[in-house]
Design goal:
The complex is a heterodimer of chains A (157) and B (791). In chain A, 32% of the residues lie in helices and 16% in strands. Chain A is built from five helices and five strands; from the N terminus they run E-E-H-E-E-E-H-H-H-H. A five-stranded mixed sheet of chain A has the order 2-1-5-3-4, sandwiched between helices. In chain A, helix 2 crosses helix 5. Chain A is globular and about 45 Å long. Chain B has 791 residues and is an alpha+beta fold. Helices cover 26% and strands 26% of the residues of chain B. In chain B, strand 29 and strand 30 form a beta hairpin. In chain B, helix 16 crosses helix 17. Chain B starts with a helix and ends with a helix. Classes of the chains: A alpha+beta (157), B alpha+beta (791). At the A-B interface, helix 2, helix 3, helix 4 and helix 5 of A face helix 2 and helix 16 of B.
């Protein structure tokens, strides 16, 4: 049943033996030990499992690992370059603007925001809110998350 | 900060000299959380780990006639099956011990209740095994409506053994109503003579309000992981917000010493009260499976299970009758509060009491009578939810206040001000008021919202403003411990026993310790979350961490400083009270040239020159005086209150009934803010959760079946559901508490309390309609408009 799958994650090719019906989320967490990507609902509603696939924000609970063969996957662990100890400007901005509480939604939020700023470096507040409407946070009320993205927008651009 | 408060604080704490406390230090858990490196319960694996699934009841009330697991047992990969017969004969609970881990008495009491637990090599095998288990039931009558359930002759009695249950309340038996067998707790609050007040009043109004069951919607679902260590210690890694009480009860359940139960709570992905009592229904199942299989077991609930089987916020019905004089003086208030507790009321019994305190201590009410009832129903279990019953009752009280003001033709803000309690007054529960900043909170939000302007019509939309105030008490009496250690280079290690679930307790404790030692948070490490290495704590509940854990940490720091100053005084030949610490240096007052590094007090082995280690262990327990069971009166049943106010501007669509919250301000008197930005973030979190609770959140249940157990059907606020950043304004108001660390109080729950009635009051001011039963959905607003002939 299990087959060899090679996934390009965070700039490295990872081989894994997985069943064809496993989701990308399961494979990232259980096979590659990339647990920064969180499981919140498994139905695509909460956004805690958001990763980038060829630069687009995708909910990894809704896509099979086999569907992303040959594509470039970026998870929160690879955003700032793994092992560098540094932070991506968005990560730094989340920290500086107190946009983190329990932190469970944070990786997904940061990944969605990364995709947004890559595509639209100067989004308005309204555009930010619309782009991240698929990422639920129960702690922050979103104010400081939006503030952090707006501040990073200026730094990145 | 008002000048008088500042003076008080200056006198007590010398806040002007503070360098870390009172500053918005970045969260110390921020870097690992933002990198995705912070680890939560299910981010840890273990070789040979099994996966567990639970078979659930499909009946709301039924007798189990037979359970046959033989086919499931034969399935390859199934390693353990636990049935009700395998569960120790002991009931668990935070306050009322009414939980059975599985229904040992062979009665299922709600749809979704776990009946059998299976552990297998993979989740798929565990799920397959559930399909092969056969359970025969004999259906029993069920009751879902709490007002039906509390009748004298209910269609069914949910827990006939209720009088034999163990409860933390010594007066438990007095709280029962033998003629109403589904009433599991009745709390009375009596002050003055309400009948006399109603007879003398110029105006009496009476209404019924309700708030539905809602869900905490923590982003991390309930999950737990158990294994048995080589020495037999029961080890549990779990997503809980109250492991302290769990250690003792699980030790009793499994017949081992509390020293043989280790509970680890890594970072928790949101709690909001819903993870307080998870040890009563979740952790023991993983342990039983681990014991039976001899392997580590992971039990992770899905989002659907989260809605069906993890605790809901209690549904509450509130009847309010108010008496008032023509000049706007409140004369009396009578409340009957009914809480739908579901199948168990372990924590809900405390909510029956707690909800009364939202009423007793904000307005001057000379005559007050409250009867609050907790009622069992055949609906899922309930537990604490941010606010602990107070938002539910405030939904009634604060709309009632606007109605009274309206009928008396007095401005609702002025009407509130006239009746507000003041510092030093006695409240209706017999406790003296201290640290009350609600009047200033009201000033801040009304000024910001532009109070006084009339509603505006803009096409199909009507814009209007509303205000409400509220409070949340913190339970007195529960304990928190702290262990503080200082290394030879001045590095500080703080251990506490509470849970970091996003509220920021680790950062606050680092700030307090850094302040005490005159250093920065970079020189502090905070260790939390493991009962094997950290002291006892009751839990991250009741907005208690800053105050209780903070006081414990501070006391431990003081003890270590005392030891350091004694060593330094001997070394330097000066009195200990002439010595102080700053930047890892020991300074002598008036003698700058006698400064020595702290490390001079340690030998080459890194130990203090006097021997031993520089470690202090403390425990802080607030004073609690039990209340009189007949009157609810006590001079100290609450540690403190956080008070506050919300003002909103909403737009209502007169054709569809849709409510949009356009602007929102919240002001709260948190004592002295240890970390202002983190406090602001709590208030903003209250905006989001409060708006959701007000306009669309509800667990829809039909004949005991939860109809919306997912985020597609249960709506929670998204980024587009809340006002923009410029239209959201948090305010921090000072009202230092004389016993709080640096004057600080807790804040986490109060921030949710007045949101719903502020929106309800705005709806009335805009269109003259009220929705008495939350949430104020489009449909309900539309119906109210139609009843008024407006559509």
């Amino acid at each position: 049943m299990k087959k060899l799958l090679k996934l390009n994650v965070n700039g490295r090719v990872h081989p894994a033996y997985v069943e064809p019906w496993r989701t990308l989320l399961e494979v990232l967490r259980d096979e590659l030990a990339l647990t920064g990507t969180k499981m919140g609902c498994e139905s695509g509603h909460c956004g805690a499992c958001t990763v980038l696939i060829d630069g687009k924000a995708v909910k990894s609970c809704l896509i099979l690992a086999y569907q992303v063969r040959g594509k470039k996957i970026l998870t929160i662990e690879g955003l700032a370059g793994s092992g560098t100890g540094s932070l991506h400007p968005l990560q730094q901005s989340f920290l500086d603007h107190f946009a983190i509480q329990c932190g469970f939604c944070t990786p997904g939020m940061v990944m969605s925001a990364t995709a947004l700023l890559d595509e639209n470096p100067e989004p308005s507040e309204d555009e930010i809110r619309k782009a991240l409407t698929g990422n639920i946070c129960r702690c922050t009320g979103y104010t400081k998350v939006v503030e952090a993205i707006m501040a990073a927008r200026r730094k990145i651009s | 900060m008002p000048e008088s408060d500042l003076e008080l604080l200056k006198e007590q704490e010398n806040v002007e000299t503070l360098s870390v406390v009172g500053k918005s230090v970045p969260r110390i858990d921020g870097p690992e959380k933002v990198r995705g490196e912070a680890r939560y319960c299910s981010d840890f694996g273990m070789p040979g780990m099994l996966h567990a699934k639970l078979l659930r009841s499909c009946y709301a009330h039924a007798r189990i006639k037979r359970i046959d697991v033989s086919r499931a047992e034969r399935l390859p990969g199934v390693r353990a099956i636990v049935t009700p017969d395998d569960v120790p004969d002991m009931r668990l609970g935070m306050h009322l011990r009414d939980h059975q881990v599985l229904p040992r008495d062979k009665i299922v009491r709600c749809i979704g209740q776990a009946v059998v637990a299976v552990a297998a090599d993979t989740l798929i095998i565990a799920e397959d095994a559930l399909e092969k288990i056969r359970v025969d039931y004999e259906e029993l009558p069920a009751v879902f409506d709490p007002e039906e359930a509390m009748k004298k002759d209910p269609v069914t009695i949910i827990h006939p053994e209720l009088p034999t249950f163990i409860c933390g309340d010594p007066h438990f038996k007095k709280r029962l109503e033998p003629e109403m067998p589904n009433v599991c707790y009745h709390v009375k609050m009596r002050s003055g003579d309400t009948e006399k007040a109603f007879a003398q009043a110029d105006l009496v109004i009476e209404n019924r309000y309700s708030t539905p069951r809602i869900h905490h919607c923590q982003m991390e679902t309930h999950r737990t992981f158990a294994w048995i260590a080589d020495d037999g210690t029961i080890c549990i890694r779990t997503s809980s917000q109250s492991k302290g009480p769990a250690v003792r009860q699980l030790a009793d359940l499994f017949g081992v010493s509390p020293g043989k139960v280790r509970i680890i709570c890594p970072y928790v992905g949101g709690g909001f009260g819903g993870k307080v009592g998870s040890f009563t229904f979740l952790e023991p199942l993983a342990v039983l499976l681990a014991k039976k299989s001899g392997k580590p077991v992971s039990l992770v609930l899905t989002r659907e299970e989260q809605f069906i089987d993890t605790p809901h916020r209690v549904g509450v019905i509130t009847y309010v009758k108010d008496a008032v004089a023509k000049d706007g003086t409140l004369l009396g208030r009578q409340l009957k509060i009914i809480l739908d507790c579901g199948i168990t009321a372990s924590m809900a019994t405390l909510i029956v009491r707690a909800c009364t305190y939202g009423t007793t201590s904000i307005y001057r009410i000379p005559n007050l009578k409250i009867d609050s009832y907790g009622v069992y129903t055949n609906l899922p279990r309930t537990d604490a939810y941010r606010g602990f019953g107070v938002p539910e009752v405030t939904w009634a009280i604060e709309q009632q206040m606007d109605m009274l003001a309206d009928k008396l033709n007095i401005d609702p803000v002025e009407f509130r001000r006239k009746n507000l309690l003041e510092e030093g007054e006695m409240d209706a529960s017999g406790q003296r008021v201290h640290s009350i900043g609600v009047s200033e909170c009201l000033d801040k939000v009304t000024r910001w919202i532009g109070w006084g302007s009339r509603p505006v019509r803009d096409g199909s939309w009507v814009k209007a403003k509303g205000v409400a105030i509220g409070n949340k008490f913190t339970v007195a009496g529960w304990s928190s411990g702290a262990i503080v250690k200082v290394y030879s280079d001045g590095f500080i290690e703080v251990r506490h026993g509470t849970e970091e679930m996003g509220q920021g307790v680790n950062t606050v404790m680092a700030q307090i310790a850094a302040e005490e030692f005159g250093t920065s948070v970079d020189n502090v490490r905070v260790i939390h979350g493991d009962s094997a290495y950290c002291p006892y704590d009751f839990g991250a509940v009741s907005s208690r961490c800053t105050y209780h854990v903070g006081n414990a940490v501070r006391q431990a720091c003081h003890e270590i400083k005392r030891q350091i100053f004694q060593m330094a005084s001997k070394r330097l030949g000066v009195e200990p009270d002439h010595v102080r610490l700053k930047d890892k240096q020991i300074l002598v007052t008036g003698w700058p040239d006698r400064t020595i590094p702290l490390s001079d007090l340690f030998n080459r082995e890194g130990l203090p020159i006097t021997g031993g280690e520089l470690v202090a262990t403390t425990s802080f327990t607030g004073t609690y005086v039990p209340e009189d069971p007949e009157t609810g009166q006590s001079p100290r049943s609450k540690a403190y209150y956080a008070y506050g106010a919300h003002a909103v501007e909403i737009a209502v669509n007169v054709e569809t009934g849709e409510i949009k919250v356009l602007r929102i301000a919240g002001a709260f008197d948190l004592g002295y803010p240890i970390n202002p930005k983190m406090a602001e973030a709590q208030i903003e979190g209250g905006f989001g959760q409060g708006i959701g609770n007000s306009v669309f959140e509800e667990i829809v249940i039909e004949d005991g079946v939860v109809l919306n157990p997912n985020f597609g059907d249960y709506k929670i606020p998204k980024m587009t559901s809340v006002p923009s950043n410029t239209d959201s304004q948090p305010f921090l108001v000072s009202a230092p508490h004389q016993e709080g660390p640096f004057g600080a109080k807790g804040l986490g729950e109060a921030v949710l309390v007045p949101v719903a009635p502020a929106i309800g009051n705005a709806l009335y001011r805009g269109l003259g309609i009220r929705v008495m039963d939350l949430p104020m959905t489009r449909m309900k607003v539309f119906q109210a408009l139609r009843e008024k002939g407006m559509v």
